[in-house]
Amino acid sequence: AMMFEAYVTNLGMYPERGVEVGEYLRFPTTIEEVQDLFSRIGIDGKSYEEYFITDYQSDVLGLSDYLDEYEDIDELNHLAHVLKEVQDNGDIEKYEAALALGQHTGSVRDLINLAPNLDIYSFYPDIADEEGLGRFYAEELHAIEIPEHIANYFDYEAYGRDIAINEGGCFAPGGYVSAAPLGFTEYYHGIEDIPAEHRVFAYPNETPHSILETLKQLKEAPPAPKKEKTGPFYEER
User: Fold this and answer.
1) Whole-angstrom distance, CA of residue 39 vs CA of residue 55
2) Which helix (H) or strand (E) holds 178?
3) Buried residues in 160-180 as b, exposed as e (16+ CB within 10 A)
4) Of 73, 60, 77, which Cα lies nearest the Cα of 112?
5) What's the DSSP call for residue 168?
6) Measured between alpha carbons, how far is 188 from 170 in angstroms, rounded to an integer?
7) Are 22 and 10 in contact (CB under 8 A)?
8) Burial of 133 (0-12, 13-18, 19+ CB in 10 A)
9) pTM assigned to the model
10) Angle between the 73-88 and 92-101 helix axes, to the nearest 10 degrees?
11) What is the mean pLDDT of residues 37-47?
12) Nearest 5 degrees, angle CA 22-CA 26-CA 29?
């Protein structure tokens, strides 16, 4: 299953020819797919070695907002494998909620580490506002005893607002998430921790077909328009 895709562009071509030569790469990916894509956009490891990423699209809500132009392809691939595991465990909404909270989201390294730390977040699905949160804490968690005769007059919204403020929580698309103040563990420290089977960066083996040929094709069929980073597309789950 694809977790996200990135529009990979030939960095050297851009200032030189004034065109964006690129295409979407789906993650998780393979060495062969990376080599084929590089070959098609003229990144050969000789004349053109560098790429940058102009757009991300993902079914994981909010993910695109935290990825930038100069991410490492191996690290992105490792992230995609980690996210696939989160999805297989049925925790993707909780992950999205942790993203919305915006802590430990400053880099791909953080995004990778977020996955094994999800158990320190409290996530209550389908709670969309302060009143719902107040009712949930009172009626389901019994965090407060409200005598029956005043239950109808009790201000659940104000109570819920206090909870959210005290916990530093937020309402995400899938529900309410609170920030666990302690216990975030860094399992992944950087590219040296990426398992060999997730490393996919490689230049093409053979010389790619002429980049001028690529440019000719681009004039005939211009690349996909550059999309805004906000508003990722996603299917209804």
Assistant:
1) 20
2) strand 175-178
3) bbebbeebebbbbebbbbbbb
4) 77
5) T
6) 26
7) yes
8) buried
9) 0.83
10) 120
11) 92
12) 110
What CA–CA distance (Å, rounded) separates 61 from 172? 10
Residues forming a β-bridge with 175: 125, 172
Residue 98, class by beta-carbon neighbours within 10 Å (0-12 exposed, 13-18 middle, 19+ buried)?
A: buried
Q: Are 203 and 38 in contact (CB under 8 A)?
A: yes
174 in Cβ contact with 97 (< 8 Å): yes
Residue indicated by tokens 């040929």: 213
The whole-angstrom separation of Cα 10 and Cα 14 is 7
* Tens of pLDDT, residues 54-81: 999 999 999 999 999 999 999 999 999 9
Contact between 193 and 76 under an 8 Å Cβ cutoff? The reply is no
Q: Name the more confident of 162 and 233.
A: 162
| 48's tokens | 């053109």
Structure tokens at 186: 């860094």
Q: Which residues contact 154 (CB under 8 A, 6 or more apart)?
A: 138, 146
